[in-house]
Amino acid sequence: MSAGSAYNDEKGGSSNTGEPEYGHDPASGGIFSSDYKRHDDLKEMLDSNKDSLKLEAMKRIVAMIARGKNASDLFPAVVKNVACKNIEVKKLVYVYLVRYAEEQQDLALLSISTFQRGLKDPNQLIRASALRVLSSIRVTIIVPIMMLAIKEAASDMSPYVRKTAAHAIPKLYSLDPDQKDQLIEVIEKLLADKTTLVAGSVVMAFEEVCPERIDLIHKNYRKLCNLLIDVEEWGQVVIINMLTRYARTQFLNPNHNESLLEESAEKAFYGSDEEETEEKDEKEEVAALAKRKPYVMDPDHRLLLRNTKPLLQSRNAAVVMAVAQLYFHLAPKAEVGVIAKAQVRLMRSHSEVQYVVLQNVATMSIKRRGMFEPYLKSFYIRSTDPTLIKVLKLEVLTNLANETNISTILREFQTYIKSMDKDFVAASIQAIGRCATNIGEVRDTCLNGLVQLLSNRDELVVAESVVVIKKLLQMQPAQHSDIIKHMAKLTDNIQVPMARASILWLIGEYCEHVPKIAPDVLRKMAKSFTNEEDIVKLQIINLAAKLYLTNSKQTKLLTQYVLNLAKYDQNYDIRDRARFIRQLIVPTEKSGVLSKYAKKLFLALKPAPVFESPFKDRDHFQLGSLSHLLNAKATGYQELPAWPGMAPDPSVRNVEVKEAVPEWTRCSSREKRKEKVEKPFYSDSEGESGPTESADSESELPSEMESGGGSESEEGGSGSGSEESDEGSESGKEKKKKPEKIKVRKTLPESAESEQSGEEEKSVRKRKERKASSESSSEEEEESSSESSSSESESEEESESEPETKKKKKISLSKPAPKLPKKEISLLDLDDFIPTPSPQVTPINNIVSNSLATDLQGLSLTDSALSPTMISPSFSSVKTYELLHRITGEGLAVEYCFSRQPYSLDPHMVAVQIQFSNNTDTEAKSLRIQEPKLMSGMRMQEFPEIEVLAPGETVTVVMGIDFCDSTQAANFQLCTQTRKFYVSIQPPVGELMMPVFMSENEFKKEQEQLIKLSMGHLMGMNEINEKLTMGEKCQSDHAIVQRVTSAANLSRVPCGSDREYRFAAKTVASGSLVLVTVVTKEGMAAQLTVNCEKMVIGTMLVKDILQALSQ
Amino acid sequence: MIHSLFLINSAGDIFLEKHWKSVVSRSVCDYFFEAQEKAVDVENVPPVIPTPHHYLISIYQDKVFFVAVIQTEVPPLFVIEFLHRVVAMFRDYFGECSEAAIKENVVTVYELLEEMLDNGFPLATESNILKELIRPPTILRSVVNSITGSTVFAEIQGVIDASIKLSGMPDLTLSFMNPRLLDDVSFHPCVRFKRWESERVLSFIPPDGNFRLMDYHVGSQNLVAIPVYVNHNINFKESGSSGRFDVTVGLKQTMGKSVEGVIMTVHMPKVVLNMNLTPTQGTYTYDPVTKILTWDIGKINPQKIPNLKGVICLQSGAPKPEENPNLNIQFRIQQLAISGIKVNRLDMFGEKYKPFKGVKYVTKAGKFQVRT
């Protein structure tokens, strides 16, 4: 240090000469004798006009702070530079300010206005950094300013600024806890945010400010689950830990019925018979229901488990651990196993990580031993492991020991005993002892092994063995008198006090088994009494007392001798013990009463000690937490709640429309949007068709629904709900008993199910009507369009005329969840509906369905389905693709087209219309799909089997494919009764999206946001520009719009300029926005811009549109 | 979350401190020093130390202790993982993470720490994002399009490190000849997990620079033969103060690749005073204080098998060690992945230029221990 200061002195002297001098060692800001002078230099530099000097000065100051030197007296000089234009200087000034503002509150206030200005800056990065520094300044006076800034930033356009706002919340809370209520409001708002960037930070704020407000999570639960995989890793950890706690309060224990189930397994097996007997013993049933009822997991519970599982593969150990603890605490026993492998992987990481992971594995392995058994060898100890790790591994090995693997483990332990690390050897011996107590079969083997260790040359080993043997012997002393004898001999050699004490206790306790040796041992001990350690002396007294009681003839004098020695011992414990024992055992006139019972007191049967793992029951702490590791409650630890006895209402997690208003729409209420959307389209044609006829068909419908619903729901459940099928087949059984409940459950797994079912119900009705009317009416274009509008008007009218249906409808809108059976019906209806349109109707059908879609989406309860009001589908002619040629298909020709209507069963799927025509003269039977070979993530909803296709007939069906926003082909087999054809459907990129309505302003805003979003990562990744020359036919507005909309499923966005054309859509699977701009220029030139988060889609779309426009 | 961070060198000097919330006095480190003293060995310092008002969570890297001060409940792995990320970032920026390097770049270090945590919660921990905010001390911005992946293996555990210098938004797909070998994997967040699940290919849009693409583990059922063998004969005479030491390291099949950088280290028992050995190849040293014998063999020539033999001098009067020491052997094989993993091809989508591709396989024995 002295050398350093000398160096600095020299520097200080020459500091005026210029900056290069400082250049190479900014860290040398030592302050010693030249303290005062040096700071003057710095002040001078800070006051100068040159940014380079300022920067240099700031660098030196920051170096001082880093080394913990006090630089607070520079505060006035530094704070002046807070508005400095140079970004490098500014950053360092911020660092300084945050560090010292607390100490210099008054001066710090000078800087506030700069940050307030920064909060209004058009650049999001500057806004964010201003908020970050402002909220880091711990000055209580500015609390109101901070509060205001946070509130404003929470509704900022930029997700990055919103993230910063979330970070600021705990800062303000720690500064002024009185702001809690207001902050909770902000948290509530930010929790509803849909960007992954914000999710982690706001949950962190939630955990710090109001972890008890679990009710705030309900509405956001499914969103959080679905976003989880895309959240940054640190946010994932926080969210997973929070959701673990949440799940514990909301769902039932999946392992609760384990034992009960076994007991009533037989009954459950014959569950179907129960219905017959149900009436007889209904009361009994109710009582037994709780017990007998097979556990059905809440789909939300399943959602959490499913969405966290892939994160076990994360590179971040904390994420893996978080998932592991989630599975441990929440998953059914049979599924917990998956986490073992991941944890074993973590053990190959840094030793600190190993240490924490092993602690958790130790706890888990007590409860779920089977899970780690296959990885037994991963816990073998290397001689190079640190002792901390060795001991933990030993713990795990001990926990894993059972009858089958014990011999391997014991052999491994034997090697450990030879180790040079004595602490570890001692731990190994204890581990052997524990194995011996836990596994009765090997007790004798272990005991023999330990006895052999008694002749080990290392005293520590012997001592530890003695202690362990003592405990083991207590379990079955009678059989082991020879071991006791052997140990008695050891007293001559062994010097470790604990071991000596143990031997003496053993001999005393079991003196009746070794009647000849015991007095002799006492004799020897009496001789060496004065030289023994205290614990040994106490045991000598004990031994003497016990011998006196059993064999007073031989030992009376010896005992008295020992007691006399003890009487004058330096240690008062020993003196006390001696006095107490003498009173107890030696009968005198006064103490006769007690001495009668002395034998009972001393030689009572003592329970054998239990070898317990220090990790037993540690799982009442949330695993992976600091509290678990320390086995003590840390500050701020949130208890893991016990499972509820009865599941709380799951409907609280259903998301209603108000929460789900997307960022890019202004329409706040569904009604409003519906009105806006539909009126201009349908009002003119309203009332055109006969309402009476459709009202009739309508009135028939509900009864059909009901009758069909009960029986279909089960079939549909097993067929379509492949996701739920893993939840056990019992669900089918329960369905009958509790249809209401099941409905709720069944609809839950998808995030967007709520609107779906609402939508579906509508569509079902529509299709029914359509079917009814289309049979009678002609197939003209106008006719069908009027039909769709009539159906629209009907639904409104009928709601007035038919109270029952009205009620129904209301339910469907306000409580979207319990609607599942209808979903199945829609599947059914689809069959009825599909055969009607003849091939040449396809474009018409398209219009119908598109307007239908508009209608439905207007009604829908979701953010994801935005109405494509601006779409002009009539322009776009639908292109058909060949799936199977007439010749290769041996007479069966199959074509498909993308109908551009939303697929009603799953909004994430693209609807593909498939048309079969039978050109042979025999019937084609059972046309169906088999063995879909899909890329990962892709899903397919097959069309229902076509049983018979008569010769010359044509049939059209609709299937849904979730292409996951990729243009990968979906391969599958098309089967008839006799043949199989390998076919594949490859979507053009333009079909992977659906139109979105937005205004010009919204368009611009979204575009800006997309560009900004990419700044944090790589510039320009969200925007692709391309120049093009228009084709000859693309002269008119109309032609351009038509070409673009036929190339891709886009909707036009109104635009002020007549040289610009804007289009918007979002991808079907992930809902990413796709924004297309075409700007025409002089002549035939034009510029095409595509903005999309999905790079690949953007690039491909550019190609397609280019081609379309330049033809 | 993380309240403060102290960097402490092995001499016990706190040479850097950073606070993200209010300032915590550096006297809190006294608890750490206490624990360090108790642990004797640096590696035995418990990673988590409770103190009356705080919790200290530390890691030890490059002879520097990174001690994070925590005030409230937080998953310990969260902090440990973050500290390791800090270390990785320092290595990325300065090439190493030593005390000297940190002191030399103290301002950059401080700025990095400032950006990596906000109010104790990680903000930006990705190298490519940080590098846009804070420039590394030496600006080496190569415009060359090149990708090299070096595959490093240790026993049956390996990693794929990538070094990507590609402009634009390349979408890469890396496929293996034999992905079935991979038993357990973990990925950089850029890897699309679903494609791995279904197709066993690594599909990703890489961040710029060096990063670890994947960690993997090859199941023990596929355990490939260890390419070297060791013949050893170590004994201590019952009476007298000497023993014999005779060790030969030989090659098993290595598919024509040479085994290099072979180093054997042996922790001798305490009673060994000195060793008097003659190697047929390489050099050996014996440190009588730490009792570590190091034999630097270098490259093994299959024709001439290296051997080290000689006499062990024991402390007279002391009983002979009851156990023979374990032999630790390190080696490296260039151009060969012992696990049998082979990269099949690397394709790039989304950009038009032709990238330079290269793969380097390295086998390295991590903890190869021979129990004698």
From TrEMBL, chain B:
<dbReference type="InterPro" id="IPR036168">
    <property type="entry name" value="AP2_Mu_C_sf"/>
</dbReference>
<dbReference type="GO" id="GO:0006886">
    <property type="term" value="P:intracellular protein transport"/>
</dbReference>
<keyword id="KW-0472">Membrane</keyword>
<dbReference type="Pfam" id="PF01217">
    <property type="entry name" value="Clat_adaptor_s"/>
</dbReference>
<comment type="similarity">
    <text>Belongs to the adaptor complexes medium subunit family.</text>
</comment>
<keyword id="KW-0333">Golgi apparatus</keyword>
<dbReference type="InterPro" id="IPR011012">
    <property type="entry name" value="Longin-like_dom_sf"/>
</dbReference>
<feature type="domain" description="MHD">
    <location>
        <begin position="126"/>
        <end position="371"/>
    </location>
</feature>
<dbReference type="InterPro" id="IPR050431">
    <property type="entry name" value="Adaptor_comp_med_subunit"/>
</dbReference>
<dbReference type="GO" id="GO:0030131">
    <property type="term" value="C:clathrin adaptor complex"/>
</dbReference>
<keyword id="KW-0813">Transport</keyword>
<keyword id="KW-0653">Protein transport</keyword>
<dbReference type="GO" id="GO:0030659">
    <property type="term" value="C:cytoplasmic vesicle membrane"/>
</dbReference>
<protein>
    <submittedName>
        <fullName>AP-3 complex subunit mu-1</fullName>
    </submittedName>
</protein>
<dbReference type="InterPro" id="IPR018240">
    <property type="entry name" value="Clathrin_mu_CS"/>
</dbReference>
<dbReference type="GO" id="GO:0005794">
    <property type="term" value="C:Golgi apparatus"/>
</dbReference>
<keyword id="KW-0968">Cytoplasmic vesicle</keyword>
<dbReference type="Pfam" id="PF00928">
    <property type="entry name" value="Adap_comp_sub"/>
</dbReference>
<dbReference type="InterPro" id="IPR001392">
    <property type="entry name" value="Clathrin_mu"/>
</dbReference>
<dbReference type="InterPro" id="IPR028565">
    <property type="entry name" value="MHD"/>
</dbReference>
<dbReference type="GO" id="GO:0016192">
    <property type="term" value="P:vesicle-mediated transport"/>
</dbReference>
<dbReference type="InterPro" id="IPR022775">
    <property type="entry name" value="AP_mu_sigma_su"/>
</dbReference>
